[in-house]
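fwd from M.: "can u put these together and see what the complex looks like"

so here's what she sent:
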Amino acid sequence: MNNQEILLLSASLSVLTYSFGSLLLGLPLPFPSLKKLGSTLMKDAVFSMFTVALSSLLLSLPVTIYEKISADWGVFEEWIAKRALILSSLKAGASLASSLLSKVAGELALDSFLEPFVKSINYSLLTLYLALSLSIIIRHHYAKLILLGILLSSIPLRLARGAGCYLIAFSIVFYAGLPLMPLFVENFSTPVDYPDINTDVAQGVIRVLDRRGVPVPNAVVSGYDLETNRLLFKYTTNALGVTTIKSPLDGLPVNRVFGLMVEVMGRQAVVNPRIVEPSFYKRFIGERVELDVLLEDVLLIDKNGVYLFIGSEKEASISEEQNIIKVYLGESEQYVFLVHPLTCNVDIGGTVLTRSVNVWNDIPVVINEIFVESVEKPVIITVNECRLQNIDFYYPYTLSTSLSLKDRFTQTASQILLNFVVLPAVYIAILLSITSALAYTLSGARDRLPVKPW
Amino acid sequence: MSNITEFVQSLAVQVTLVSWSVFLLAWSIGWMLRGSPIPLARVRRAGQSFIEDAVWAAFWLSVGSLVFALVSKIAQVLQGAP
């Protein structure tokens, strides 16, 4: 049924109402209320005919108001799309984080703080999409709604006059008012600080090996962002030369390229690889990764913290008897550095040029500069006694930098709920109350049948 | 779906016809009551009111199309249409 037909039907209904009213008026029955009903019906018919005749004014009214208050559907839809995009990506991140979390931390952690967050996003998305659907209906079918309202209000005996006038008022108010929702929400909303969800984490360790492939303990391994030079993580190797992970949420970057730096007793070593790509990882079941890092200029003398820094060109060999270690270097006339903490008692058989003590993170470290004359003459190192205080640098690359802060998630969830559920709902409630006021004005004071009890 | 419109229109025509017949009926009943040799004032008054209402109904029925034409004209003036 097209618009013209609807108008024709409404007009016919008005005529019907009119004839029916005059029939009641002329009935030879001695009931005054029946006569009154007849004349009321005739008045209603005139009213609805008036509405039908005014249809083009009613149809142009929403657009006129819309242009007068400079509302814009485009802005509205863009606003919805942007918010939906932010929320969707947040939800995807949270879902991924929760799936990773449930794998490592079980259901408890998942339920406790991620679930309300995800729920709030769901509700917000639902509200936004509802508003969007409403806007699409209003925007493209407001004319139909108004005509339907005219039709309903011209049904005889005021059977649907209230509903009809409500439809007309609804179309007018929502067509002009709904596009202004972003203005309302943005003005009254609190800024949301979205949590920084980092899901680019795999459970993983780095094994640090010296030149000969021996695991190096107490090495401090740091990862850097290549572009911003920001520190990503800092771990310390244990006695097996493997970085220790203290939380199941901590690990290594799995999808990014990063720079690697290894410090041994405060001295930076030449590492291979210097730039780590995701393909370098050895991958295991359960998304565990492992990375072997070779220190090209370091020889581990004693695992309690005695290291020899050599030139990285030629091979070196080590022979060990009791605690006497002989290091044969592959190249003559070079300077090597023996580094150990002050708490170690080390004798060196060879030419020690300088011996200096540096303090590295509260640990006094001895650096011996040794000159090696020839390949045949080894550097003889005797480690008498060695103790090392615990070295523990720990700056984890964790699943989310704010995941552990439950309060922050709850706060964000509440902010999201306020901004994208409560405020739009309040705005729509305001529009609805305006609508009912307008509908009341349109339909007249009384909606009920004008029949009095006899 | 124009059936509904046609149905409503035919219904309106029928109702109008019925209204005219009812007017004639009410008119005759009214005169009958008014002129009946019954010595009750109430009956005569009822007859009088029947006649009056029937005349009004007939009047509105006959000017019905005029009323609607007037409404359309006023609406056109309000909307500023030619």
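replying to her w this: Chain B touches chain A at residues 1-2, 4-5, 8-9, 11-12, 15-16, 18-19, 22-23, 25-26, 29-30, 46, 49-50, 53-54, 56-58, 60-61, 64, 67-68, 71-72, 74-76, 78-79, 81 (CB under 8 Å).
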